[in-house]
């Protein structure tokens, strides 16, 4: 049965690691955004070997489980290649690399949505490649896909419990520890679910507000 006394006992202990979950999510999201843009540009490159290699890398990462990738980074790299990473760094890299492949497709969709006339105008104005992308293409390509990127941020946040598999003590990891100590799992797991619900729903409202602010549905 539910115990409010035990709930009040474990609540502060769970709150202690909320920042780890949020920090891991935001850092991995930054990695995903940066690497996703690189992958998108490489995928669209006219240099065919680079485009093909990027395509197969994206497909491989997207079609293999995130957990396997995390295990490879955290357990295989130290034993086979001598590269040892902390649970936090390994988790951020694994989550960021995995979702960068999804971000790359979001970027590509945004870039392909830019009107052909904008490309021609940049060429007519004799812009350099950097100027063309920085001042004309990317600002128009990224703006429409901001809500999609926000949704991926929420998805990444909900994926952070898998990081407990590589010993990162985030919300779910702390709940498991508390449950194993007291043999009471109902309260800590329920609180974790409530935390995820509140934060995810709040983030979804912010994404919706941002979408309305950008006025993306107006023509």
Automatic annotation (TrEMBL):
Domain ABC transmembrane type-1: 18-207
Gene3D superfamilies to which the protein is assigned, alphabetical: MetI-like
TM region(s), chain numbering: 20-41, 53-75, 81-99, 189-207
Subcellular location: Cell membrane
Protein name (Swiss-Prot/TrEMBL): Ectoine/hydroxyectoine ABC transporter permease subunit EhuD
Domain of life: Bacteria
Membrane topology (UniProt): Multi-pass membrane protein
UniProt keywords, alphabetically: Amino-acid transport, Cell membrane, Membrane, Transmembrane, Transmembrane helix, Transport
GO cellular component, one term: ATP-binding cassette (ABC) transporter complex
Entry GO MF terms: transmembrane transporter activity
Major location (coarse): membrane
Single GO biological process annotation from the record: amino acid transport
Pfam families hit by this protein: BPD_transp_1 (PF00528)
Family of the protein in this entry: Belongs to the binding-protein-dependent transport system permease family.
């Amino acid at each position: 049965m539910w115990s409010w006394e035990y709930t009040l006992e474990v609540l502060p202990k769970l709150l202690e690691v909320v920042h780890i979950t949020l920090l891991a999510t935001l850092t991995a999201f930054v990695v995903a955004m940066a690497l996703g843009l690189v992958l998108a540009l490489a995928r669209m490159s006219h240099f065919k070997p680079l485009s093909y290699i990027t395509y197969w890398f994206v497909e491989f990462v997207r079609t293999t489980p995130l957990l396997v990738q995390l295990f490879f980074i955290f357990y295989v790299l130290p034993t086979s290649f001598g590269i040892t990473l902390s649970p936090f760094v390994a988790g951020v890299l694994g989550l960021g690399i995995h979702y960068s492949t999804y971000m790359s497709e979001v970027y590509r969709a945004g870039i392909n949505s830019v009107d052909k006339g904008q490309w021609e105008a940049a060429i007519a104005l004799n812009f350099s490649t950097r100027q063309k992308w920085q001042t004309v293409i990317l600002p128009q390509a990224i703006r429409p896909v901001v809500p999609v990127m926000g949704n991926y941020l929420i998805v990444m946040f909900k994926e952070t419990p898998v990081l407990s598999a590589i010993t990162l003590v985030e919300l779910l990891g702390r709940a498991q520890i508390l449950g194993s100590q007291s043999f009471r799992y109902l309260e800590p797991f329920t609180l974790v679910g409530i935390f995820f619900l509140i934060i995810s729903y709040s983030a979804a409202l912010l994404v919706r507000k941002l979408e309305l602010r950008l006025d993306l549905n107006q023509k």
